[in-house]
Amino acid sequence: MSSPSSPSHTDVTTERLVLRSWTRNEVTEVLGNTRSVHWAADFPAEGDRVIAGLLDQHPDWFGAYGHRLVVEREHGSVVGSIGLFWPPSDGVLEIGYGIVASHRGRDYATEATRALTEFALTAAEVHTVSATVELSNPASVRVLEKSGFRRWTTAGNTARFRRTRPEARRH
After folding, report:
1. Which helix (H) or strand (E) holds 139?
2. How far apart are CA 70 and CA 18, in angstroms?
């Protein structure tokens, strides 16, 4: 997963959150249904279990442009996960995110998505970050719109959104 432009420090910090890489131990805990005192009561959600399984199968996803846990800075609680599906395809990198139910409605997903997208767009290999969302999930659509994404395509109940590096829009 490493790339020539891969930064050595991988935490992304926002006003209220730290987006930090998963550890192999955390993957093992999630897959083994072990509870950590640093997790919100309803973490991991089903999507977090899926990501843990994928990380177990794809250890190269642990790098700087991989998957991260969403941690509240104030309490140090893991409240969700967010990730980039590296490597990019023709300069386009997919992002996915989820915040546990007990911590929704606080704009954490928007804050994390905006920050990780801005981080991803600093990679030389990336000019666009995209996300796929079901239109039956209006909260996720709002997260993307508030994070600066624009609808790219729609097919049935699924829409693809993207955010492009400013200089890439001119081409």
Report:
1. helix 138-146
2. 6
Residue 170: CB atoms within 10 A of its CB come to 6
Single out the residue of 75, 35, 67, 38 nearest to residue 50, CA to CA: 67
Instruction: For 36-75, write each residue's pLDDT tens digit.
Output: 999 999 999 999 999 999 999 988 788 888 899 999 999 9
Q: How far apart are CA 25 and CA 63, in angstroms?
A: 15
CA atoms of 39 and 66, how far apart (whole Å): 20
What is this structure's pTM? 0.91
Amino acid at 33: N
What per-residue confidence (pLDDT) applies to 2? 42
Q: For residue 60, give the DSSP letter.
A: G
Residues of the chain with pLDDT under 50: 1-5, 8, 170-171
- State what percent of residues in the chain have pLDDT above 70: 92
Q: What is the DSSP letter of 38?
A: T
> What does 118-139 look like in DSSP terms, one character per residue?
HHHTTSTT-SEEEEEEETT-HH
**Closest to 96 measured CA to CA, from 105, 106, 88, 85:** 85
Helix axes 46-57, 24-31, angle to 10 degrees: 120
